[in-house]
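Before surveying the methods themselves, let us examine one representative protein, written as a sequence plus integers encoding its fold.
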Amino acid sequence: MPEGRPVSVVVDAVGGDHAPSEVLRGVSMALANDPALTVVLTGPADVVEPFTSGSSGRAQAVPTTQVIEMAEHPATAVRAKKDSSIVVGARLVKEGRADAFFSAGSTGASMAAATLVMGRIRGVQRPAIATVMPTAGPPCVLLDVGANADCRPEHLLQFAFMGAAYASVVLGVIGPRVALLNIGEEPTKGSVLAQESYALIAESVPNFIGNVEGKDVLSGCSDVIVTDGFTGNVALKLLEGSSRILLSQVRDSITSNPMNKAAAAVLRPALRRLRERLDPDTYGGAPLLGVNGVCIIGHGSSKARAVSNGIRVAAQAGRGALTEQIAAAIGDN
């Protein structure tokens, strides 16, 4: 089992489509996999207290009286529901009572709570959502994938520093290779935003390898890919949908007749490994980078395995002092 320095992660017990049962199962898995981990559960008393009473002291309950629903306006709900599981979770990190926060609840509310309660790292203009993408080589970090639809070149420059810090701390990459997503490899290709961003990143970011096109995102040629939130979200959803359809088509093909089924029995271990690599649940949640604390946002459909991996990523980021690494990178530039 992986070991490290003690770390505490706040978990929103009622966040997500399958909460609280799958969230609590995920917490149990995370605790079993990491002996140095402790968890702080936020949510209704009748949900969090029975679970923590049997946790041998490794889980603490912080009962809350409010829940932010998926359909609520994020910023309005965060301001109105100060005793919600999401807002209290962000506050515990802000107060230093935990090292990181994980929620599979409302993405907008988690972003709003992290930004309004934790605050931004000094010098950060726009927090960004990152995601870890499977590639033909090691996984890479893609950002922004939805927090900022409209960006300026200086925002993309900061995304490059933040993405490199995340790749280093969480993925263990030494000297991450950083690329800019564009419609061509030449520095003069693309929009005004892309061309001006290229110039800024090339001047300031170590190991910048230049532009990459959409066809190269999954090639493994870079460790960090930077873009605006609109483009990044389109790319992410396209890749997720493509992998889902591809796996479905493969499954249909290998079960279409007895001969294919026999071959599938031989190929099953390899196909299972492929599915594992393509499954977003493998990589935990999406970090909101640039806020003054670790915030990992899980899919609303997260089940126990995804929750456990999200907590694992949050613990890694907390142990690796991700917030401090980003603050140093932004402060030096």
Q: What stands out?
A: The chain has two domains: 1-124+290-333, 128-282. The two ends are 38 Å apart (CA to CA). Residues 1-124+290-333 form a domain with the Isopropylmalate Dehydrogenase fold (CATH 3.40.718.10).
